[in-house]
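Consider this record:
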Amino acid sequence: MLGQEIEWEGTIIVVWNKKIVVYGGEDYNGETWTNITTSKRAKMLPDTFIG
């Protein structure tokens, strides 16, 4: 898989400096990056891309 191109769809959660956080799951309800990284929303992390 290394070197292959991918596409990622989702909701942009936050953009800061030269980074972007995109949530690709289906159950997004306006959570912020801080909310997603807390223990209550940690289940969302596998569907999150930071680039």
Notes: The chain has a mean pLDDT of 89. Helices lie at 33-36. The chain is about 10% helix and 25% strand. Residues 11-50 form one domain.
